[in-house]
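sanity check this chain:
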Amino acid sequence: MSRFSVAKEKVLDDLENIVEQLLRASRKHKRQSLWNVINPYRAKAKPDQMAVWLQGARRGAWRDFVSGDAGDAIDLVAYALTGDVNADSRMAAVEWIEDRYGLKDMSPDRRKQIEAEAKTRRAAAEARDRDRREKSIARARKFFFSCGPIENTAGEAYLASRGIPLSQISGLGRSLRFRQDCEYWMEEGRPRIPAMIAALVDVTGRIGACHYTFLQADGSGKASVDKAKLMFPETSELVIRLTNGESGLSAEEAAANGVIGICALTEGIEDGLSVALTNPELRVWAAGSLPGLRTVPDHPSVSGWVVFKDNDWGKPQAQEQFDLAIARLKSFRKPVEVISMPAEWGKDVNDAIRSGWK
């Protein structure tokens, strides 16, 4: 077992203490599956922008969703100590871990024992993680179907306030619902707030997570909370299928009948619905976030992609993430076109429509 492997196992054993100490993480941002932390090396960083995973096979992994920095447990220590992950900082991290836990004088027998224990823990953690994920997905599906129609609710009023008359969107899918008393779990006391609920589905159309937009009671805007948009549980390889395009067929029905067409991709729901309003012939999906764009699944109903790019990032890391997403879409060997709104029109399609540009 290598120095790196032994050091990594010690970090995983004592992960919560390391996160709290090295990243000065607040336990109020700690959840069962991950811990949201503030990146100390990025100005104006917020806790919802960086996470350390605490369970399953991903335990010890971390990601800054703004900069794109990410890595395993050794990289976490390296980044926490130096603000960078490279060969030198990773070696420094291993030496720090060895000093912290007295690993330098470890006997060969003790190393073998640690390796055997680690293998057993990994297998058990992976089994627990699979079980947890399936239970979380089942919870998300049950919650979505417990919500009511979005029509004639604060959810529809909210979309109208964003220049999106829901009744005028053709080929609308079944991804949007409404909940009058949705639990806002990011605040103590978990207040009940109206919310527009969107289903995130996998490549087969199976619901894997929910997207929440918390709203003012009258739908005049987003709720006055720290983070009005949330997603649960993990959303990798999931999308919100907003509209079915010209055929009116779901993606699965279209594929079964040999009907293929162009799919428009956006980050946000409002942006996607704005695209659908002005381009009813397109199938429109929303990724829910910039990281979500990087995991959009291919589908046999899609002949090509039109990606509507937000233009409010101003950070090279975000541009890099977008470029990686486009490269992945191109790997499907289908045409890919990127459309950016001119800055004077706003940051996205929805801004452009509301500002009068069409």
Remarks:
- Residues 49 and 66 are 6 Å apart (CA to CA).
- The longest strand covers residues 192-201.
- DSSP finds eleven helices and 14 strands in the chain.
- The radius of gyration is 22 Å.
